Amino acid sequence: xxxxxxxxxxxxxxxxIGRGIALKLAQEGATVAVHYFQNHGAAADTLARVRELxxxxxxxQGDVSRVEDIRRMFAEVRDTFGSLDIFVSNARSExxxxxxxxxxxxxxxxxxxxNSQAKAFLLGVQEAARSMPRNGRIVVITFAPGGQNGSxxxxxxxxxxxxxxxxxxxxxxxxxxxxGITVNAIxxxxxxxxxxxxxxxxxxxxxRAWHERGWTPMGRLGTPADIGNAxxxxxxxxxxxxxxxxxxxxxxxxxxxxxxxxxxxxxxPITV
Length: 272
What we know:
The protein is α/β, with parallel strands linked by helices and 272 residues long.
């Protein structure tokens, strides 16, 4: 997965999953524009770690829910890089701006979810495509389980926006295919060093125990590095025949059936 001479922009890459993606792309040789909204110190730390890996990059700031910020951010990247080979749309707004159940969510919260996700992705790809050469790579980070089901009630705004991103991904994949540009979505499972860590400690531990028990067949939560590996694979030359797809990078969690008890689903251990 050699990405030397490639230039990438990863939104929301100052921390969490976005940082894991930025570091993996840098490890493979890409120059990375590290994006942040409010935490410049975290972005500077990510860029320092990018440089420790032997690559380089820049820091860009912007609120991805604002059209003018997105356009300014891409203009800065174009001025610095000249062209853009990889665009990863990962940033989202903070919990407090959208986290509400369907019967009580406000229009402002609903708009924030869609503005920071579906609209940001739509405009981001339009901007990226202006300076993307042939065989570029576009990846969007979604979270399919929260939108395909209805049980995580306060996720209604973000879940709906994430599914809109997946649909938009398919349309862009067709629109850009003649230029050799691929557009794919990565759907992580519950991931360490991400939104999970903003929850109370008791909730975090219960979630970890649930997945380690077997609801993630691999027996653990994902890490930002896991998602970075998946993104780098799609961004490589070898990923050039994959487009318009939603890839579940979740250790098999999306394969589990909640209808039956876990004990009835898991295979018996093999003894040697």
